[in-house]
Amino acid sequence: MSIHSHTPQLAVIDNRGLPVRQVAYWRRDAAELRPEALVTAQEHDGAGRLVAQRDPRFLAPASRPNMATVYSLSGAALCTESRDAGWRLGLPDRTGHMREHWDGRGSHWQNEYDTQRRLTAVHEQTRDSTSRTVERLTYADNAGEFAERNQCGQLIRHDDRAGVVWLDQQALNGGVIRQRRRFLPDQSDVHPHWPVVEAERDALLQPGAGYITASRIGPLGQVLEQTDAGGHRQHFSVDRAGQLQRIDLTLDSQGRQPLLKAASYNAEGQLLTQVTGNDVTGSATYEAASGRLKRLTATTSACARLQDLRYEYDPVGNILRLVDHTQPVTFFANQRVAAENTYTYDSLYQLICATGRETANAGQIPGLPELITPSPIDPGRLLNYTEDYAYDASGNRTELRHVSDGNPFRQQLRVDPQSNRALPWNEGEDKPDFPRNFDANGNQQYLAPGAQPMTWDALNQLQSVTTVGRPTEADDAEGFRYNAAGERVAKFSSQQAHAVAHRRVVHYLPGLEVRTTDDDEELHVICVPLARGSVRCLHWVKGKPGDIEADQLRYSVDDHLGSCSLELDKHAGVISHEGYYPYGGTAWWAARSKVDADYKTVRYSGKERDACGLYYYGFRYFAPWLGRWVNPDPAGSVDGLNLYCFCGNNPVCRTDSDGRMWGPFEEAVDAFLEIEPVIRAEYGLPPIGLPASELEDDESMDYQDSPESFASHDSPGESSPGSADSPVPPPSPTNDQNTVLDILNANPDKPVHYWNDANLLERTSFGGKVYRADRRLPEEVLRDGLNPSTEFTSIGKMISSEALTVAETLEGVLFYAAQSQDDYYFYEIDADEVGGVSLLENLVLNTPRMLQHLNAEPTGSPTEQTGLSNRMREAHLNFDDLNDGKPRIKSLGRLPEDMKRARVTVNH
């Protein structure tokens, strides 16, 4: 019997059309006759708002739910309480601005706004400190110098927790042309308290002019040239479709050199080939029907093959087998050792068994295994291993069995009975003290049981880790600092050796890492992303070691997850070679010298591995030896109710771009960026370039999609107080907005637009055909009509009157419906003479105001912040206009073949 036999997914809907139960059948082994039924439940109040969510471990009605939400009379989420992440409380003022925040650790924030309702200051008080002003924001007036730089009304100075950033010049489309960053003193325990007077704030910073980054932005909003803070210049060339074609690098005071010479793509936008500056050709082959990656190769100009990865899948797209055909089969210690990985999954597609190769000394500790030199690795040094994984009903990994001649072991994790917090534990030991090992917000307090303490700032960002504690001497430690958007911008590490303290500092800047040590070394690491993989150039300003070349180029040859498998130099010579366990630990690695190995920092999933062993993902840290995050998901329950689970326990087929939401490993295609230049060109407007990111799932039509993604984006607990996520309502239309409106309404072939009460572009006649999914029978819908939408959680209602949520395309509504296993009927709606607002149109033509309406991060990707709503092309129609007596609704039936294709796309 197959492990997947008789394991359907069921959904229960109440009489309001709201999901109240989901049943997943879990079989761990094909020998199990009866799979276990895992029930997830939701509760809604009388207004249809989601108030409680329970996973299978906390299903009893008398138990506290995994996540509960309390709403105001207006429907705004005021308080959230999570078993994993604690509680958050936020109180908005009468205009809807979040004025004050509290959390379970006793932290309290107060936000200040100016007369235009722009955030101007954030005050923070923790349980053990007095109130401090941790952020101040300054905006440009209409003086001549600001007008010349397109800055009137724009943010020009932001004092944050790391220092100050000045936005010195902006393009017409809103892109930053020139910015400058100055840091606070290089100590992780320095907490700012910003005075009102700018001169007094400047006195708190490190001396000097700061780090300046300048960009040249092209007509489609792409960055065509970037000069980093070290004076190094990156040049980018794209084709007519906006796809990357060439990259050149000009180091400070040196000549121009190519890093990417050419690239080609298929009709789906997937990379086919790229030729890098060291004349290595990387190629990718895909299955014609599904678009799945079949093969990755890297070949030198002399036809030497450096990489040849081949993939085999099960019917739903899980990788079953991965073989590297560049590595020979060897026989060692009575074993046949092949460069082959195999994977087995349970009925929920959680990884339960993996095989591969490792060195004899690799294991469960956070550190790296012994380095093998020289590279490439001697296959005779490798042994086979098998890892088996066990999970509980909430998706917590509870056991790892590692079978190998080199280092067999068993790791157990004990899960808190009251949450999904878990700690390493061995049979016979006392139960872990979870209140001591986790704070009220769920942040892990020790890297190892009772040792290596971790400290967290008020925003639940890791502040420091003690890697080696000493009772009478200074500890070895790492410290971190973050900007207002939550991105790490500085790292400090200190180590004791022979009674001498050694200190290292890293400053992270756009396209550049500045690494300094106390032994007079200053290294600029220029970071350049390619179409696949990346290049890191090591440029020593001073203190270069003697055993490594100056301005060393390190080309990363990645696998399907973006993990750095090979590093090549400018002559295509192998610098390092590395293999990984499924959950990110290093199984083996080799380098041509120890000096070369010391400068490798990027590894699994293309992320930086810190000295403490944690991987930094952007908004969280991942512990590969535990297979879980060390603190709860800052995005809430977008990936399910277990806020510590890594990639749904399927790390082979899924990646997480920044620690907030996982997705399939296929190359991310930002749907918004694909269509943005086309739409703006159609309207005769300049484009607005926004950063791309992974496609992500979220809520959309009336809260009826995946119940696991029911996260309230308006909850004060899901955004950093005072950060770019803080809600700011739109002011009156700006001159730029009015110019856009004039251009739109000057075109007689386009609908008439106006600025509505939310300062969003609204059409008097939406026009054309739009689409809607509904569970009711066609005869009922055609007789009684559609019902107005009542839930606008992911995308707040964009019009003032009653609204109907629709998709602008048939593909969009199919994509929405494919997120669940429910059966829908589909309807085409004639939207002529029906007012409405398009999400995509406002993201493209009215970006700042739309992001403010979303309470979103102005520098973030719209796909990240609108999820399914963006992918399905969501729009809100004026419901009253639909009830004008005209026959506007046409039934399309169930569209079974279209739905089958849509579900295949979603599952892959």
List keywords for this structure.
single chain, 908 residues, mainly beta, Lipocalin, RHS repeat-associated core, 3 domains, 30-stranded antiparallel beta sheet, 13-stranded antiparallel beta sheet, 13 helices, 11% helix
Task: Walk me through the structure.
With 908 residues, the protein is mostly beta strands. It folds into 3 domains: 1-85, Lipocalin (Beta Barrel), CATH 2.40.128; 222-437 and 510-664, Shell (RHS repeat-associated core), CATH 2.180.10.10; 671-907, no CATH class. The protein contains 13 helices and 59 strands. The protein has a 30-stranded antiparallel sheet, with no helix packed on it. A hairpin with a 4-residue loop joins strand 48 (621-623) and strand 49 (628-629). Helix 5 crosses helix 9 (839-845). The chain is globular and about 80 Å long. The protein starts with 8 loop residues before the first strand and ends with a helix. Residues 667-730 have low confidence and may be disordered.
Helix content: 10-25%
Radius of gyration: 27 Å
CATH class descriptor of the largest domain: Mainly Beta
Number of domains: 3
**Number of beta strands:** 59
Sketch the major β-sheet.
30 strands, antiparallel
Compose a concise summary of this entry:
The protein is mainly beta and 908 residues long.
Produce the secondary structure layout.
Blueprint: E1 9-13, E2 19-26, E3 36-44, E4 50-54, E5 67-71, E6 77-82, E7 86-92, E8 98-103, E9 108-113, E10 119-125, E11 132-139, H1 144-148, E12 155-159, E13 163-170, E14 176-183, H2 198-202, E15 211-217, E16 223-227, E17 233-238, E18 244-250, E19 256-265, E20 271-276, E21 281-286, E22 293-299, E23 305-313, E24 319-324, E25 330-332, E26 335-337, E27 340-345, E28 351-359, E29 382-391, E30 397-404, E31 409-415, E32 422-424, H3 434-437, E33 446-448, E34 451-456, E35 462-468, E36 476-482, E37 488-497, E38 500-509, E39 512-517, E40 522-529, E41 534-542, E42 552-558, E43 564-568, E44 574-580, E45 586-591, H4 594-598, E46 608-609, E47 615-616, E48 621-623, E49 628-629, E50 654-656, E51 662-664, H5 671-682, H6 735-745, E52 753-755, E53 761-763, E54 769-774, H7 778-784, E55 803-807, H8 810-817, E56 825-830, E57 836-838, H9 839-845, H10 847-853, H11 862-871, E58 874-878, H12 879-882, E59 889-893, H13 896-907
Antiparallel strand pairs: 1-2, 2-3, 3-4, 4-5, 5-6, 6-7, 7-8, 8-9, 9-10, 10-11, 11-12, 12-13, 13-14, 14-15, 15-16, 16-17, 17-18, 18-19, 19-20, 20-21, 21-22, 22-23, 23-24, 24-27, 25-26, 27-28, 28-29, 29-30, 30-31, 31-32, 33-34, 34-35, 35-36, 36-37, 37-38, 38-39, 39-40, 40-41, 41-42, 42-43, ...
Helix pairs in contact: 5-9, 8-13, 9-10
